[in-house]
Write a structure and sequence with these properties.
With about 475 residues, the chain is an alpha/beta fold. The chain has helices at about 45-60, 65-80, 85-95, 100-120, 155-170, 185-195, 210-220, 230-240, 270-280, 300-310, 330-345, 385, 400-410, 425-435, 465-475; strands at about 10, 15, 25-30, 35-40, 125-130, 135-140, 145-150, 170-175, 200-205, 225-230, 245-250, 255-260, 290-295, 350-355, 355-360, 370, 375, 395-400, 415, 415-420, 440, 455-460, 460, 475-485.
Length: about 475
């Protein structure tokens, strides 16, 4: 039997085995089988990576922005060169359809690298004259060594979303990808070496959160932490980082509403987008609209059209171009999602479609597949409508007027994203201002401009990513005041 591919940490520009000599199994969600091994690193590996980053940080900070940008563009070229291979690897690692990884995940990783490579060369400083007596100007200087911790649902997409602005701003990075989906991050590390990034500028340490993530957050040499993941883990990171006064960017969970008014343009294209907003990437996107609020006057007619489209979604082998949904990322997450569906039934929810595991034939017979599930009949304060399920599960909730829609939408502890469907633009602007979410889409979903701030309120996080917000996070402002007379 052939040996399994074995990933390595990237420390000081070299591939390095974990100090523990221990490895973690990496499973293919579509088959349930182990297909690779990932380092089970610990604090010793983190110490080595931070030390390498500290050695590299001064030289990288002194490197002209144009040179940093050129290297990031070169890395983007290499990722783009391997689009097909990386899409297949991302699919095998995470369970998502290859077609989705090919059209969304890998192109977005390229876009992240290119955007921040360009942005850093266009970022202007500030100056303030004091009536001819003095001149103030602001320097934006890199922090030094920063930690970037990314999740499993959009592995390379979100990994590059963090490291690109950190590197562009002149920081040395120690990054931790999810140990559940580590493969494309490991390959990116190899491509970074090929692109010519200096040793120690980008370090990648694989392993589990308690051993690697915790060590990174608590390390005295790490000046800032950018994290995407669960609200529970984000709270633990905040508690651990607070005594050290580290800068924190926390992009956490969501229980997002899609709000459909009777006057919405429910063309086939728009209805398809509403369906996609609930079930894209098997619902494993923090921005998915898992609470579908529909005005009561159109509720029954909308429900029938919506259910017809959901039932038509094909759950299948991620390698099959006809598959709309692939497998859930792990056995543990499969158990969580199916447990949440059981919880919904126990609360009195009606399952309108789905509600069960999907068993496929052939190579995917042991994969972790769940049918797209639509629920009805649960109040907004039910556990199902308050808990982030992070799977292919959408709850339908009727409402009568604007005030009720607003109360339902805002009636959770989360505040990441909302989508609003109406042809009344006055209403759209009025409600958007009152929705307690960091992002509001009007008559669209997941339409992203990388220049805009990204993040949530309440239990959905702290700080903003994207555009100049990310560059500000990864730099420290310093005011210089020069007396003129």
């Amino acid at each position: 039997m052939p040996s399994l591919p074995t990933l390595a940490n990237l420390i000081d520009g070299a591939a390095v085995a974990p100090r523990s000599g221990v490895w973690l199994d990496v499973h293919e969600p579509a088959t349930g089988a182990v297909f690779a091994r990932c380092p089970a690193s610990d604090a010793r590996d983190v110490d080595a990576a931070v030390a390498a980053a500290q050695r590299a940080a001064p030289g990288w900070a002194a490197t002209p922005a144009e040179t940093r940008a050129r290297l990031l563009h070169r890395l983007a070229d290499l990722v783009e060169r391997e689009l097909d291979a990386l899409a297949r690897l991302e699919s095998r690692d995470s369970g998502k359809p290859v077609a989705l990884a090919h059209s969304l995940d890998i192109p977005r990783a390229v876009a992240n690298l290119r955007f921040f490579a360009s942005a850093i060369t266009q970022w202007a400083s500030e100056a303030h004259a004091m009536d001819g007596h003095a001149l103030n100007y602001t320097l934006r200087q890199p922090l030094g060594v920063v930690a970037c911790i990314s999740p499993w649902n959009l592995p390379l997409y979100l990994f590059t979303w963090k490291i690109a602005p950190a590197l562009a701003a002149g920081n040395a990075v120690v990054a931790k990808p999810s140990e559940i989906t580590p493969c494309t991050a490991a390959r990116l590390g190899e491509l970074a070496v090929e692109a010519g990034l200096p040793p120690g500028v980008l370090n990648i340490v694989h392993g589990q959160g308690p051993q690697v993530g915790q060590a990174l957050v608590e390390h005295a040499g790490v000046k800032a932490v950018s994290f995407t993941g669960s609200t529970k883990t984000g709270a633990a990171i905040a508690a651990a980082a607070a005594p050290h006064f580290k800068k924190l960017s926390l992009e956490l969970g969501g229980k997002n509403p899609a709000i459909v008014f009777a006057d919405a343009d429910l063309s086939d294209a728009n209805l398809d987008t509403i369906v996609r907003s609930g079930f894209a990437n098997q619902g494993e996107i923090c921005l998915c609209g898992s609470r579908l609020l529909v005005q009561r006057s159109i509720y029954d007619a909308f429900k029938q059209r919506y259910l017809a489209r959901v039932r038509a979604l094909r759950v299948g082998d991620p390698e099959d171009a006809a598959s709309d949904l692939g497998a859930l990322v792990s056995q543990a997450h499969f158990d969580k999602v199916t447990g949440c569906i059981a919880q919904a039934r126990a609360e009195g929810g009606r399952v309108l479609c789905g509600g069960e595991a999907v068993r496929l034939d052939g190579r995917c017979a042991d994969g972790w597949f769940v049918a797209p599930t639509v629920l009805e009949g649960l109040p907004n304060d039910a556990v199902t409508n308050q808990t982030e399920i992070f799977g292919p599960v959408v709850s339908l909730i009727p409402f009568d007027g604007e005030d009720e829609a607003l109360a339902l939408a805002n009636g959770t502890g989360y505040g990441l994203a909302a989508s609003l469907w109406t042809s009344n633009l006055e209403r759209a602007h009025r409600l958007s201002a009152r929705l307690e979410f960091g992002i509001v889409w009007i008559n669209c979903w997941l339409l992203r401009d990388l220049r805009t701030p990204f993040g949530g309120v309440k239990n959905s996080g702290l700080g903003r990513e994207g555009g100049v917000e990310a560059l500000r996070f990864f730099t420290e402002p310093k005011n210089i005041c020069l007396r003129l007379s």
